[in-house]
Design goal:
By secondary structure, the chain is mainly α. It is built from 15 helices and six strands. Strand 4 and strand 5 form a beta hairpin. It is elongated and about 90 Å long. The N terminus is likely disordered.
Length: 359
């Protein structure tokens, strides 16, 4: 018996006359495996790897990982997991990975490879002509990691997440950004929105300022989500996956009542776009309003920051701010803690006066 036969490798002549090194594995409880390689060392290495995977119980997952590409994972993920409130940024992040690594088999996507593409992300220039921020890179990595988690738990295509347990270092988290409108800025912005050629921009911005809702949540609102008698909006699809009830009061409620008077029965969308079956995309009119109002360094998401900041400055506790924003923990609202100082001072003063008496 030759050495090749002893180590499970046998030679076979291919049609072009070259020698191929082959092996087959027949093991109870596993599918039959046959492979052919140009080099004997490759055949030996692959045979040993498969036998070890069978022993460790990882073979079936490894087989699935070799069968499917990242492109297949992304396309299946988009159908079942990309919610309707996904922002254009989230979609762009997923499509970036598809363009860069879509043809790679899942088994070939290693922490080293992801790290290489993380570095590429950090060196990219965005459409605004600036280097991509650490926060942006972290979001790209987060969506990739979530897709791998879904591939493990729901599809059975992977055994391990190549990004789990610190296998890929993420850029340092930037400090929380709190940019909110001053009273003067708010007045200028609302005036510019009111005068916009897009007649839906003003109610959208007022609703964002008075409820803290995200843009994706706002533009995907349906009339069935509103209970005008109870003055509430029910959000069924939120970022954290939980249903949320949002109060609508004052000017926001008045504007919605006016919209109801002129609503079309063609669509159930509160803010329909050019096509009544698709939500509005207010980005262009929003940018124009900011320009006319002379407001710089301000994003639509900062309206949510403004809402939270106004709550904090008007006596709301961090817990109340978290509940209003739909956050499960206080960690996400600590950036507003300093704005609660005056309320905190008042509460501590009242407690001291009650215990020790007025001084």
């Amino acid at each position: 018996m030759s050495k090749s036969q002893r180590d499970g490798i046998f030679e076979r002549l291919s049609k072009d006359g070259s020698t191929r090194y082959c092996f087959q594995i027949r093991k109870k409880g596993f599918p039959h495996v046959f492979q052919s390689h140009r080099r004997k060392t490759d055949a030996v290495k692959e045979r040993n790897r498969i036998l070890a995977a069978m022993e460790d119980g990882k073979f079936l997952h490894a087989t699935e990982a070799r069968k499917h590409t990242l492109k297949e994972l992304i396309e299946r993920y988009e159908k079942g997991h990309l919610k309707k409130i996904a922002s254009s940024k989230q979609i762009a992040e997923i499509r970036w990975w598809k363009a860069q690594l879509g043809e790679r088999r899942l088994s070939d996507i290693t922490p080293v490879l992801i790290t290489e593409y993380r570095d590429r992300l950090q060196q990219e220039i965005t459409v605004r002509g600036k280097l991509r921020s650490n926060g942006s890179v972290r979001r790209y990595l987060a969506v990739l990691s979530h897709m791998f988690s879904v591939a493990i738990k729901e599809f059975g295509w992977l055994q391990d997440n190549p990004m789990a347990s610190g296998k890929v270092n993420k850029p340092k988290e930037p400090k929380g950004r709190v940019r909110f409108l001053s009273e003067e800025e708010r007045e200028r912005l609302l005036a510019a929105c009111q005068n916009s050629s897009n007649k839906l921009l003003y109610p959208i911005v007022v609703l964002a300022l008075s409820t803290g809702m995200r843009l994706g949540e706002l533009i995907n609102l349906h009339w069935d989500d509103l209970d005008l008698q109870r003055e509430r909006i029910t959000l069924h699809d939120t970022k954290n996956g939980e249903r949320r009830s949002v109060p609508i009061k004052g000017l926001a409620l008045q504007l919605i009542m006016k919209l109801k008077e002129t609503r079309t029965r063609v669509t159930d969308l509160l803010f329909p776009g050019v096509s009544p079956y698709k939500p509005i995309d207010p980005r262009f009119s929003w940018e124009m309003a900011l320009k006319k109002a002379g407001i710089e360094n301000f994003r639509f998401h900062d309206l949510r920051h403004s809402f939270a900041s106004y709550l904090a400055m008007n006596g709301a506790t961090l817990l109340e701010v978290a509940e209003a924003l739909g956050h499960k923990t206080l960690a996400c609202v600590k950036i507003y803690a300093h704005l609660c100082d005056s309320h905190k001072d008042k509460v501590v003063s009242q407690m001291n006066a009650k215990i020790f008496g007025e001084v």
